[in-house]
Amino acid sequence: MSRPVRVRPSEPRDDHFEDLITSVNASKEGIYFHSRRPGYYKGMRVFVTFPYTSGHDPMNCDYVAEVVRVETLPNGKFGVAVELKMTMNLGKK
Protein backbone atom coordinates (compact mmCIF):
# COMPACT_ATOMS: atom_id res chain seq x y z
CA MET A 1 0.00 0.00 0.00
CA SER A 2 1.68 3.18 -1.20
CA ARG A 3 0.67 6.17 0.94
CA PRO A 4 2.37 9.37 2.11
CA VAL A 5 4.15 9.07 5.48
CA ARG A 6 5.63 11.68 7.82
CA VAL A 7 8.36 10.52 10.22
CA ARG A 8 9.97 12.54 13.04
CA PRO A 9 12.29 11.45 15.86
CA SER A 10 10.69 11.26 19.32
CA GLU A 11 13.93 11.32 21.33
CA PRO A 12 15.58 14.67 22.11
CA ARG A 13 19.05 13.14 21.62
CA ASP A 14 18.35 12.45 17.92
CA ASP A 15 18.77 15.20 15.35
CA HIS A 16 15.44 16.87 14.64
CA PHE A 17 14.14 16.14 11.14
CA GLU A 18 10.92 15.67 9.27
CA ASP A 19 11.03 12.92 6.64
CA LEU A 20 8.16 13.04 4.13
CA ILE A 21 8.24 9.82 2.15
CA THR A 22 5.92 7.24 0.60
CA SER A 23 5.30 3.81 2.12
CA VAL A 24 6.37 0.75 0.16
CA ASN A 25 4.32 -1.63 2.30
CA ALA A 26 2.06 -1.24 5.32
CA SER A 27 0.03 -3.38 7.71
CA LYS A 28 -1.81 -2.83 10.99
CA GLU A 29 1.45 -3.53 12.85
CA GLY A 30 4.00 -1.61 10.81
CA ILE A 31 5.21 0.36 7.81
CA TYR A 32 8.15 -0.14 5.44
CA PHE A 33 9.48 2.82 3.47
CA HIS A 34 12.53 4.01 1.53
CA SER A 35 14.39 7.14 2.62
CA ARG A 36 17.51 9.06 1.64
CA ARG A 37 18.03 10.05 5.30
CA PRO A 38 20.98 8.11 6.83
CA GLY A 39 20.13 8.70 10.52
CA TYR A 40 17.72 5.81 11.15
CA TYR A 41 18.89 3.03 13.47
CA LYS A 42 17.37 -0.12 14.99
CA GLY A 43 15.60 0.73 18.24
CA MET A 44 15.06 4.40 17.32
CA ARG A 45 11.72 5.75 18.54
CA VAL A 46 9.85 7.90 16.04
CA PHE A 47 6.53 9.64 15.57
CA VAL A 48 4.80 8.45 12.40
CA THR A 49 1.83 10.09 10.70
CA PHE A 50 0.15 7.62 8.34
CA PRO A 51 -1.41 8.36 6.00
CA TYR A 52 -0.16 11.95 5.88
CA THR A 53 -1.87 14.64 3.82
CA SER A 54 -1.03 17.93 5.53
CA GLY A 55 -0.15 19.16 8.98
CA HIS A 56 -3.71 20.30 9.68
CA ASP A 57 -5.75 17.39 8.31
CA PRO A 58 -7.91 15.86 11.09
CA MET A 59 -7.83 12.52 9.23
CA ASN A 60 -4.09 12.10 9.87
CA CYS A 61 -3.34 9.28 12.27
CA ASP A 62 -0.29 9.71 14.52
CA TYR A 63 1.64 6.81 16.04
CA VAL A 64 4.56 6.18 18.33
CA ALA A 65 6.73 3.66 16.49
CA GLU A 66 10.09 1.90 16.73
CA VAL A 67 12.56 1.23 13.94
CA VAL A 68 13.00 -2.55 13.75
CA ARG A 69 15.11 -2.85 10.58
CA VAL A 70 17.31 -0.62 8.41
CA GLU A 71 18.65 -1.86 5.07
CA THR A 72 21.16 -0.15 2.80
CA LEU A 73 19.70 0.07 -0.70
CA PRO A 74 21.20 1.17 -4.04
CA ASN A 75 21.41 4.84 -5.02
CA GLY A 76 21.99 6.15 -1.50
CA LYS A 77 18.64 5.01 -0.13
CA PHE A 78 17.72 3.09 3.01
CA GLY A 79 14.86 0.67 3.58
CA VAL A 80 13.32 1.32 6.99
CA ALA A 81 10.78 -0.89 8.77
CA VAL A 82 8.92 0.53 11.78
CA GLU A 83 6.65 -1.24 14.22
CA LEU A 84 3.63 0.82 15.27
CA LYS A 85 3.52 0.75 19.08
CA MET A 86 0.51 2.91 19.86
CA THR A 87 -1.73 5.54 18.34
CA MET A 88 -1.62 9.09 19.65
CA ASN A 89 -5.11 9.90 18.36
CA LEU A 90 -7.22 8.38 21.11
CA GLY A 91 -10.07 10.76 21.81
CA LYS A 92 -9.22 13.01 18.86
CA LYS A 93 -12.27 14.41 17.13
Description:
- With 93 residues, the protein is mostly beta strands.
- 0% of the residues lie in helices and 49% in strands.
- It is built from no helices and 6 strands.
- It has strands at residues 4-9, 19-26, 30-35, 45-49, 62-72, 78-87.
- It is globular.
The helicity comes to under 10%
Strand line-up across the major sheet: 1-2-3-6-5-4
What is the typical, i.e. mean, pLDDT? 90
The biggest sheet, with number of strands, parallel, antiparallel or mixed sense and barrel status, is: 6 strands, antiparallel, barrel
Beta content comes to over 45%
* Rg, alpha carbons: 13 Å
**What are the secondary-structure elements, in order, as H or E?**
EEEEEE
Number of strands: 6
By DSSP (H or I, 4+ residues per run), the number of helices equals 0
Low-confidence stretches: none
State the secondary-structure class. Answer: mainly beta
> What does the overall shape look like?
globular
Amino- and carboxy-terminal Cα gap: 26 Å
Q: What is the gist of this entry?
A:
The protein has strands spanning 4-9, 19-26, 30-35, 45-49, 62-72, 78-87. With 93 residues, it is mainly beta.
Summarize the topology:
Elements lengths: L3 E6 L9 E8 L3 E6 L9 E5 L12 E11 L5 E10 L6
Antiparallel strand pairs: 1-2, 1-4, 2-3, 3-6, 4-5, 5-6
